[in-house]
TrEMBL record:
<dbReference type="GO" id="GO:0016746">
    <property type="term" value="F:acyltransferase activity"/>
</dbReference>
<dbReference type="InterPro" id="IPR051016">
    <property type="entry name" value="Diverse_Substrate_AcTransf"/>
</dbReference>
<keyword id="KW-0808">Transferase</keyword>
<keyword id="KW-0012">Acyltransferase</keyword>
<protein>
    <submittedName>
        <fullName>N-acetyltransferase</fullName>
        <ecNumber>2.3.1.-</ecNumber>
    </submittedName>
</protein>
<feature type="domain" description="N-acetyltransferase">
    <location>
        <begin position="1"/>
        <end position="157"/>
    </location>
</feature>
<dbReference type="Pfam" id="PF00583">
    <property type="entry name" value="Acetyltransf_1"/>
</dbReference>
<dbReference type="InterPro" id="IPR016181">
    <property type="entry name" value="Acyl_CoA_acyltransferase"/>
</dbReference>
<dbReference type="InterPro" id="IPR000182">
    <property type="entry name" value="GNAT_dom"/>
</dbReference>
Amino acid sequence: MMIRDAKEKDIPRILKLLEQVLQIHADIRPDIFIPGTTKYTIDELREILKNKEKPIFVAVDEADVCVGYAFCQLQEQPVSNNMVPFKSFYIDDLCVDQEARGQHIGESLFEHVKKEAKQRGCYEVTLNVWTGNTSAEKFYERMGMRTKKRQMEYTDL
């Protein structure tokens, strides 16, 4: 297994993995997510692949087939009176094919993201996890992440 930058040839596999992630989210929050859809279209993925501030890293097997990905975004803290400026590397999405889980691919992707963040001069790596996605929460905690802030909602409107 190797981690590399995503290429256009990876889009069909990335779309399959995006479907898997969406289904997890739809199972947790059917009030928000639509089953059978994906977060991005083929055209949107092509555009993201061109954006150096939104890298996609893929884990590929010996046949160079994508078995996992990490969508990332370089974010800069805007200048403000009460905060020092800093850069964050935000993991927008991380997925390992359900058929390939348990092989430490997610750990390898996460370690690659951390190295990339350090190379880009980032202060931190951040991400969001939906409440109810306990397997993701446990995974990220094993990777050394901890809760930074909690977003709350009120939906009885």
